[in-house]
Structures are given as C-alpha cells and as structure tokens.
What does this fold into?
Amino acid sequence: MAEIRTLQDAVAELIRDGDTVALEGFTHLIPFAAGHELIRQGTTDLTLVRMTPDVVYDQLIGAGLARKLVFSWGGNPGVGSLHRFRDAVENGWPRPLELDEHSHAGMANRYAAGASGLPFGVLRGYRGSDLPARSATVSTVTCPFTGEVLAAVAALNPDVTVIHAQRADRDGNVQFWGLLGVQKEAALAARRVLVTVEELVDTLTPVPGGVVLPGWVIDAVAVAPGGAHPSYATGYSVRDNDFYENWDPVSRDRDAFTAWLKDSVYESAGGRR
Amino acid sequence: MSAHSATGDAGAGQAGAEQDGTATEFTPAELMEVNAARALAGAKTCFVGIGLPSTAANLARVTANPGLVLIYESGAIGSRPTRLPLSIGDGELAETADAVVSVPEMFNYWLQGGRIDVGFLGAAQVDRFGNVNTTVVAGGAGRPELRLPGAGGAPEIAASCARALLVLRHSTRGFVERLDFVTTMGHGSGPHDRARLGMRGRGPVAVITDLGVLRPDPETSELVLTETHPDVTPDQVRAATGWELRTVPEPHTTAPPTPAELTALRRLKNAGRSDV
It folds into this structure.
C-alpha cells in the first residue's frame, strides 16, 4: 500500500545513485517538482528514461545528474532545441551523456512489454532507419505464423518511475485524466513507483475515464500542488507556454543556466519549482 | 523575406489589394503553409507533426477540408483547436478531441493498425529519395556531431500512413546529397525498397517548400521539381537544392493564396496559442 510522504522523503527513500529512473509525462502532467527535488538531493549517475525528454530533463542533464539517456525525441516542444542536452551530447558538459535512442513507437512498446512482464515488445517499426544500428535494445524477430520479420525491442523496467497526477486518496489510490501519455505503462513497468499529486482527498470523485492506479501498485504518494509546472494538470492548471519559450535563452548559456539552477532549484523552498 | 503579389504579376513592392480591400501580399512562408494545407484536400485523417505540419493541418480544417480528422501523437484524435497549439500536448487538443487515447494505443492500434491516411511531417534534412534525418548532422573533421531532437514518431508514421507529406524550408542545408543519418525512410534508394521492407503506405508523395513542390518520379522514386511558387524560377530551386535536382518538362506555377486562405491563416496565427 502506498505511503503518503513528503516529496523530500519519498525521493530520498525511493531513488538512489545509479538508478534507472523514468519521469514520464507526455507534455501533460510532467513531474517537474520531483525532478527539482532530485537536483537538490544531488542523486547522481542516473540513467534517465523518457519518450520526450523536455525541459525537466534538460535541467537534470545540465545539473550533471545523468550518465545516460534512453529516449525517442529530445526537444523543447514547439520552441526548438534542448540546449543543455545538446551541450552534454556535443561537448560533454557538464559530463558526457550516453544515448540509447528509439522511435516513439519503439519506446511505447518497450514500456508496454515491461508492464506486461514480457522480455520484449514487437512492432512493425524501424524499417529503413539507421536507429537500430546504434542501439543494443532493438533487434528483429520472425513471426512464427506468417514469417514476417518484425522489430523486437527490449522491455523497459525502470528501477523507479515518477509520475504526476491530479489526486489521490489517503490509501494512495491515484486518479489522473486528460492526455495520459505512457504514464500507466511506465508505472506498471517499474520496480518502485512515486506519484506526486495536485491534492490529497478523503474520497476520490468518480471521473469517467479517469484512470485509477490502485495504491497497492504504488510505493509513495507525495502532495505537490503545481508540481507539473510549467507543464499542466487538466482541471487544475494550464500549460505555461511562456516558460517554455523563455527557457530557450536561459538554457543556451551555461552561466545563465547555472544561475537559474541556483535561484530556482537549490535555493527555492523545495515544494514547487 | 520578400513578399510576392498574390496576383502573380511582377508588382514587387506594390501592396496589391482585392476589391474588398483584403491585402493580397504574402510571404513565401505563407504560400508554403497554404500550399501544404491544400495538399490535405480529400484526406480523411491526418497524423499531425508539430510546427509547420500543424499549421497546415489546422489551416486545412478551416479551408480546404473542414471534415479533416486531426490526430496528434500525444493521444488526441479529432482535435478542433481554434488556435495554433505551441505543443502537440497543449490542453485544447485533448479538450476538443473526439477521443483521447494513450500513446501506446495511438501507435499500435491507430497508426500501425493502418487507420490513418496522411502522415504530415517536418524534417531537418531530406535527400533525393525523400529519406529524412532528424537525428544528427555530422560536424565535419574534428568537430562534434550536431544534435537534433531525434526520431519521435516519424519512422513509423512515414511507414504506416497511406501516404506521407513533408514540409520544410528550401535550402542546401536541408536538401542534401547525402544524409548523415537516416532517421525515417522515405523511398530508400529507389522504387522497390519500400515493398522489399514490407512497408504498407506509399511513403512521401510530396515535399512542400517555400519555393515549390517536389514529388517522387513514378519510375525512379527520385524527387523532381513539379511546381514552383509565383516569381520563383526552377534555377532558383536548383540553387537551393544540394543535389542535381531534376525538373518535369514544364513545372506548374503554384496558385497564389486566395484572400480567404490568407485571412484564415493569419487569423489562426493571430489567435495566439492555446493555453496562453
């Protein structure tokens, strides 16, 4: 059964140096507050996993926490490049970043296989692409029924998955809705699960289609109102597009980024952004 | 960026006006967007990439194809945004959608299941067979690779949609003789490669730029110039292309944007972004 913890305690307890960690969220419900808590705690040598590493991963990479990134698209959506990510890949700053690179379809099936307890996922993918040549986690499998050669992708089972959701009750049952991305699969594929929520309630209000992850598949729930900012939580907040646009000049410059880290993460109160 | 007269005459610098007073000057970028929207006439469903494809697909929905179903990889099916989204995951895309599905479902059931007509993609680099690089660009001797965002959904979108459209600005940096990395296969190295690899869709059928339109030759699958925009010559397009671009005997001239198209495009852009 999930325990209700502070964000600081939950991160300290569940995420360790060297872990493979997925902070999932497909534009919506991105767990920024948890990412910033990781930076404050200095949890390092992480293998970061995510389909769409965007600004929060730019921050984690820039802060030097990541040794490897497993992903399928790394950019600032609608704005341009992730400059901290690029600086790490192109120049090794603040440290070199190893990559395991996939397509979205491949990553989605890697998580689904992980959640299903299977060793690999199968899809009609990667054909004609140079991607498989650079990844040890893409191969092929021959269909035993038709003989068709299909892509096989290794299951992803993170040590820890962190997701952000709208709300939870006191038993740690979690409800979330809107664009769901791959959060459910990433949570079920993981060995440990931390969910940050907008609010804790006595009783969950039924929401048609509002996915519930029962408390017994979750290790900890931490209350973090606004914890998805600058992304958003449907029903609670809207996407702060200005933040994403303003991130571009901050992230282009190592000194501006370092100053941002100091002001907005290390010296912030810790609850949110 | 220079403006063209919508009347197609050489009135450079003249602010032409229709009788109703609608301004008719337009930029090459606007013509690219309008032309990309027109390419969606007749399509039922479109898998929309962010940026130029999203602009074109939303314009199509208010001009050439009101019934077009927009599908965003973030999970929204049948979105009807009133403003251009900054991101494929902006809230309005989900709130105005017929259905919202998870990302694994989107790629497995809807895309791989063969339910989508057109995949509309942007690109950093494209070669003469419509293959696309969005991963890395070689930096030259002793220099590091330049990192691009990566594949996203593109390899499977271009493989599984019934056909694909590409839209990007025309330059020798984008239209290259040889890709540094093939992220997404277009036509490989010729007409039989897609069939050999068991790809189900036809692949790229047009590349729409701010100078004209390139389409694959039915015999060789090599992209050839079939259309130039008003006031653009085939030589100008060749100069902006990194390979020896072939041209059909008499390339068409793109029809300039109608006042209605221009008005709709500018209204979409001026409406700002969702969630602001």
Observations:
- DSSP finds eight helices and 16 strands in chain B.
- Chain B touches chain A through 60 residues (CB under 8 Å).
